[in-house]
Amino acid sequence: xxxxxxxxxxxxxxxxxxxxxxxxxxxxxxxxxxxxxxxxxxxxxxxxxxxxxxxxxxxxxxxxxxxxxxxxxxxxxxxxxxxxxxxxxxxxxxxxxxxxxxxxxxxxxxxxxxxxxxxxxxxxxxxxxxxxxxxxxxxxxxxxxxxxxxxxxxxxxxxxxxxxxxxxxxxxxxxxxxxxxxxxxxxxxxxxxxxxxxxxxxxxxxxxxxxxxxxxxxxxxxxxxxxxxxxxxxxxxxxxxxxxxxxxxxxxxxxxxxxxxxxxxxxxxxxxxxxxxxxxxxxxxxxxxxxxxxxxxxxxxxxxxxxxxxxxxxxxxxxxxxxxxxxxxxxxxxxxxxxxxxxxxxxxxxxxxxxxxxxxxxxxxxxxxxxxxxxxxxxxxxxxxxxxxxxxxxxxxxxxxxxxxxxxxxxxxxxxxxxxxxxxxxxxxxxxxxxxxxxxxxxxxxxxxxxxxxxxxxxxxxxxxxxxxxxxxxxxxxxxxxxxxxxxxxxxxxxxxxxxxxxxxxxxxxxxxxxxxxxxxxxxxxxxxxxxxxxxxxxxxxxxxxxxxxxxxxxxxxxxxxxxxxxxxxxxxxxxxxxxxxxxxxxxxxxxxxxxxxxxxxxxxxxxxxxxxxxxxxxxxxxxxxxxxxxxxxxxxxxxxxxx
Length: 644
Fold this sequence. Notes:
The longest helix is centred in the middle third of the chain and has 18 residues, at 242-259. By secondary structure, this protein is α+β, with helices and mostly antiparallel strands. The chain has a 6-stranded antiparallel β-sheet with strand order 17-29-30-35-32-33, with helices on one face. The chain contains 10 helices and 35 strands. The chain has 4 domains: 18-97, Immunoglobulin-like; 119-208 and 236-419, TIM Barrel, CATH 3.20.20; 424-432 and 570-643, Sandwich (Immunoglobulin-like), CATH 2.60.40; 435-568, Galactose-binding domain-like (Jelly Rolls, Sandwich). The relative contact order is 0.09.
């Protein structure tokens, strides 16, 4: 069962690394000291044993250049500085690297992550894009994350908190292609803090706002905009313009040179949500420019990085595009009505992957901890390479989310998850003595629904990940995606079915509901005046078929469908192999549950019961027969690790 540790690490070339140590020396160069096309400053570190480690140098201001060494062999190294291939300075015993990195750097083993020494790495944490919490820097945020049990984050190179070296402060001018030193120093502090906290982060090098005029746009203040004295007339041209590519490579090279020595850099993330840039959203004919840019920049970064950090890019829409063909792992984002369905319903077929952002569709909601745990365990129990990662870092303190992360850390460390990389998700069914209303909601986004019919009550939450809440019109709008939506179930007694209506398209829509082929509801929704109150319809006892249709001008968002008295008081999801399983059971009443659908062999199993809210752990035993077991007195959100 230890095949994860038997495979080679993809992404790193040495099992042991020593350092870091930095050498700084004054050098005279002509022209932009940041631009390797003009001044390619490199260093050869020569060890006493004769081995040579070639590294990129980087400008630190005041006429000085630096280079940082992490080496596969310990000891003292001389440093030979070269400019454009010509040696200009030699320093004897320039650095001494004796301290061994604890685990090395993060790479890939199979469909998961591992350090270069073979230790598994399972990412769990939350995003920390920029300084947005009063009196807390990003570096301080990393310290806080480590205390919460988190070991992962994403941090953007954005200008509104002075982390982007291209953007000037107000009233400041940047000559030519030079970078600004203050943001570069800020990144030093972030990396040092992340290292001490044990947090590996995705270094987000570019984000969509500066290259979009429609979504979170920062184009107007971009220094490369011709309106600001720059060279780009349109943000669409960023991906093809030679000067833009030249400046992009300046930043990529500098980031690798100055920060690539750090094991806290899990990966270089080229772009945050690239689907929002004008080159895709407004000018889809230019999407190939984005794909070519990714291919070129990924190859460029990999040609520079001596530590072979992973490279990725992210999207909140389809990952099927060739844009992501060369990334090392997939990084989707999602903001659905049903977080658990969206994340657990995703399968990464060819590469490792996990969700780098998740949240509800219209901002934070009241039950933050349930939402966070759905994302964490949705990814964990779907066999992803990491947990789902929560976007709203400002809610961690405000809503006391840290205990949920600490509890998840206990699950990762004690459940056996790390030694069962081949475990598969199972379709689990939980039954309880008490019944409640059954609510189903969509886990998809703006896409064509993969399902148009569900049969209740036994619906696999993973299948709901393919259900888009954007209910298309049969008569207008996106007809290619339009289908009626059908709900089937057997009712012991008459009852009510409720449809929760959310956002309405700008053109409006019309919702029609049929129960057993009898029309019972028809209403036109206007985005400005139409009612969005839940729609309730009666159904009879016996077989029930409810059909929803939209005959309006465009889509209506359906945020959920509930059926009175048809649900269990608890539900669950899980994964496993023949003699090990990890199962989550949660609900309003978990005092007595029967869990079925497990692929376990019959027999007695030791069970670690984790309280997902508090992190408390208890040890039990259970009998598994025909893929089922019964349990009493579980926490209301429990994770069970079963092993023979």
